[in-house]
Prior knowledge:
alpha/beta; seven-stranded mixed sheet
Amino acid sequence: MQGEAISITIMAGGRSSRLGTNKALVEVGGQRIIERILARVYGLGDEVLLITNTPDEYAYLGLPSFVDLIPGKGPLGGLYTALSCARNEHILALSCDQPFLNRDLLAYLIGLRRGYDVVVPLDREGYPQSMHAVYGKGCLDPIRRCLEADRLKVIGFFPSVRVREVAGDEIDRFDPQRLSFLNVNTPEDLAEARRLAERLG
């Protein structure tokens, strides 16, 4: 795989309790969400990893899979695992339930990574999209300290590292509707995603 020296990490460790089935494997636009994600990120980095506690479900993809190094710590634990297992200095961490990723926006985030530990887009309300962001290995120690203290909010370690926020016009250039940040967590979300996919073609 060609691309930047960055690891693309798909975070597929959630329980999908609100949807009632594995959200990464539901179909949107005739394709499983995780397959839509992989198609959009292909070539952006030089390795792709899956962070999942159910690797057998994804074996058909033929990708390296890693279970949480510190179990039971939620998305922050998954992020720690991704950074620990990636061969590159930086990773692009992506949730497994975002069917409308914008490749150009992702490439833009990746291009901003030098000199920062985190490059994170903000939604319209100004909230960091932490599972749609770039992280460097300089985050490992601050994350580890949070995990050991059981402070599991993903952005909880941000004050300890160099963060580049991306918002407003920077995102509008690529994704003015903010479809990138649409997550499929509930049956209602899934129905909306399928309607959008049908409309967008």
